[in-house]
Design a protein that fits this description.
The complex is a heterodimer.
Chain A (H helix, E strand, L loop, with lengths): L10 H20 L4 H4 L3 E2 L2 E10 L4 H4 L4 H5 L5 E8 L5 E8 L3 H9 L12 E5 L2 E6 L2 E6 L5 H17 L24 E3 L25 E8 L2 E9 L3 H14 L8 E3 L5 E7 L2 E8 L2 H9 L4
Antiparallel strand pairs in A: 1-2, 2-3, 3-4, 4-7, 5-6, 6-7, 8-9, 9-10, 10-13, 11-12, 12-13
Chain B lengths: L8 H13 L19 E7 L12 H16 L4 H6 L8 E4 L10 H14 L6 E4 L7 H4 L3 E11 L3 E3 L17 H4 L15 E12 L18 E5 L2 H20 L10 H8 L11 E7 L7
Parallel strand pairs in B: 1-8, 2-3, 2-4, 4-6
Antiparallel strand pairs in B: 1-7, 4-5, 6-7
Helix pairs in contact in B: 1-2, 2-4
Chain lengths: 301, 298
């Protein structure tokens, strides 16, 4: 007698539920609003309050007036905002930004981070009631002011839910891989493609002296060597012609046409620039010309 | 937050009186007379550590005293009532432009202190309004003959700092139109008929300035500094420039190295060099410091 397989009567239901969950995950990756379905209605006495807000590049400034331009400069796509409230009307604000790419999610996260933490997603920071992290193309902020131990616990639980719901990790901007590792302060690594952020560590110019734009990914980082702090900027252009044009402009406007592409600027600290193919590299605030040459020579082209 | 040595009330009043005594009567309160005869813009910095209570909230009485002290020093008048009479007439219609960003407001205490003195001049309460986002729809602001500009200074993700110059951004229908190049041309707003020549006093609230922005809402309590100060002046650029120096000094103190604002607050310098709204050059600013001097930074 052939052996018949006995099937658990609940198997179709389980399969169905697994499919629903999978579909939800897939859908969530399509639209940021799906996070609202993933996040619990209640958590440790806190309840979702009101309908979530959904923002686009056109409407983001209505939500974070004055702060929207930072996100727009990193090609922000959409954001979900929702609130949790407790019985005393205290509030926890959850904001999830879909930045379109992991490059820009990292960029906007790294813009204001001060430390290297890895508790959530691909990089996180917690300070006085505010948790921020990035994972894949999402930048997440969970804010609970004023901070209490209980609120911090809820913030972390919500952070784990969101980070867990993002199924994959995203790659870092390739240009970061060119930064020499020696003496690099990793928490200082910035990525951007808007000239406004050129002055992040060191004031270079009020003008866009390197023609940085949406098609020129840039990395900026701080180095510390023997007590000296200096900065390295890398900008990748679509082609060598544009790179050389930017380098020429920089040499004229910042270096005053100095020979060898180096000049002592503020307080005798040296600024230098080189252009190799489509890559322009600049060093700021170096103690001497040897330091400029040494760091430029270590760029991993 | 670093601990601060408190100053006694007697010391505070003594230094304030001295400043008022030696201040010549040179102002009418109009923007056009913002400079001293020497060509310098006068900026008054008043500090009192008692301005914040144990919860970090402003004390009304101390705020009033700081405002009065500062205005006496600014105008050279012996008492706050006569000082305000050099700025405001009873027939004036007065808009007090505040800033109500939820994490760091102008504060009701500052608004109340200003409003109280304006009413003492003889301005009807119905002819005074305090507003921020609604100024273009507010009938008092629409027909205002005088403006008082009062806001806290804070770091800002796009303009470097939220400043007195920037506080008038709500006087244009589409504030986002002034955003290109990190709000470089904010001072152009001050030339619009709705505000031009109307600003009688600028008050930069420095009780707890925010010196670094973090996260989408830009605010984190970790990055506010108990400075206990009020800056006053007729020249908004000079007051902003002084506030900016304080913010930059706090950043150096906190971060332990020279950390420029990101982006730089270039709209303040451009307000001077391009729009000639006032002076941003510390060499052309006469800074009068009154009160608590520990951790003053300027």
């Amino acid at each position: 007698m052939p052996r018949t397989q006995r099937r658990n009567p609940s198997t179709p239901f389980i399969v169905f539920m697994v499919m629903i969950v999978c579909l939800r995950m897939i859908a969530m990756s399509e639209t940021v609003s799906e996070f609202n379905k993933i996040l619990p209605e209640t958590i440790d006495g806190w309840k979702k309050a009101g309908p979530p807000g959904l923002y686009t590049p056109e409407t983001l400034s209505t939500y974070i007036d004055g702060g929207a331009e930072l996100y727009l400069s990193y090609n922000f796509k959409t954001a979900l905002s929702l609130k949790y409230k407790d019985s005393a009307e205290n509030e926890i604000a959850v904001d999830i930004f879909d930045m379109g790419t992991s490059y820009d999610a990292f960029g906007v996260f790294a813009h204001s981070r001060e430390t290297i933490e890895t508790g959530f997603g691909q990089g996180s920071e917690y300070a006085a009631g505010l948790l921020t992290f990035w994972k894949d193309r999402y930048y997440v902020s969970i804010l609970a002011y004023p901070e209490t131990a209980a609120k911090k616990d809820v913030v972390f639980k919500l952070g784990r839910v969101i980070a867990g719901a993002i199924q994959v990790e995203g790659p870092l901007p390739p240009i970061l891989g060119l930064l020499p590792a020696e003496n690099l302060l990793p928490e200082s690594v910035h990525y951007f493609h808007h000239y406004i952020w050129l002055n992040s560590f060191y004031f270079v110019s009020n003008e866009n002296v390197l023609n940085i734009g949406s098609d020129t990914p840039a990395a900026l980082a701080k180095y510390r060597q023997e007590g000296w702090t200096f900065f390295l900027l890398l900008v990748r252009y679509p082609d060598a012609v544009r790179a050389e044009a930017a380098a020429v402009q920089f040499r004229q406007k910042v270096l005053g046409g100095a020979a060898e592409g180096m000049r002592a600027l503020k307080e005798g600290r040296w600024t230098g620039l080189q252009c190799h193919g489509d890559l322009v590299s600049a060093v700021f605030n170096a103690p001497d010309t040897e330091t400029v040459r040494a760091i430029l020579a270590k760029i991993k082209e | 937050m670093k601990s601060r040595r408190p100053i006694s009330r007697r010391q505070f009043i003594k230094s304030a009186s001295a400043a008022a005594l030696f201040t010549p009567l040179l102002f009418s309160g109009q923007e056009r007379t913002a400079s001293l005869g020497s060509g310098k813009s006068r900026v008054i910095l008043v500090r009192d550590p008692n301005v914040l209570d144990e919860n970090g909230l402003p004390r009304q009485a101390v705020v009033q005293e700081m405002l009065d002290t500062g205005l006496k020093a600014l105008t050279g008048q012996p008492d706050p009532q006569s000082a305000w009479k050099t700025l405001i007439k009873p027939a004036d219609i007065v808009g007090i432009k505040n800033n109500r960003w939820p994490y760091l407001r102008t504060t009701a205490e500052v608004e109340n202190a200003i409003k109280k003195r304006i009413m003492e001049v003889g301005v009807k309460e119905t002819n005074i309004s305090v507003d921020d986002l609604g100024v273009l729809q507010n009938p008092i602001f629409q027909k205002a003959t005088a403006l008082i500009n009062a806001r806290p200074m804070r770091s800002h993700h796009w303009s470097g700092v939220g400043s007195l110059i920037k506080n008038y951004i709500m006087f244009i229908p589409e504030p986002i139109s002034i955003h290109p190049d990190s709000c470089a041309d904010l001072a152009s707003i001050w030339d619009l008929p709705v505000v031009k020549g109307k600003t009688r006093l600028n008050v930069l609230v420095m009780f707890t300035p925010q010196f670094h922005s973090f996260g989408p809402h830009s605010f984190n309590p970790k990055y506010v500094w108990k400075y206990y100060g009020l800056l006053l002046g007729f020249d908004p650029v000079a007051v902003d420039s002084t506030g900016l120096r304080i913010i930059e000094a706090i950043r150096r103190e906190y971060f332990g190295d020279d950390r420029p604002l990101n982006p730089p607050a270039k709209h303040i310098a451009i307000a001077d060099t391009k729009y000639h709204l006032g002076t941003a050059d510390p060499e052309k600013i006469e800074l009068v410091k009154i009160g608590y001097d520990t951790g003053i930074f300027v």
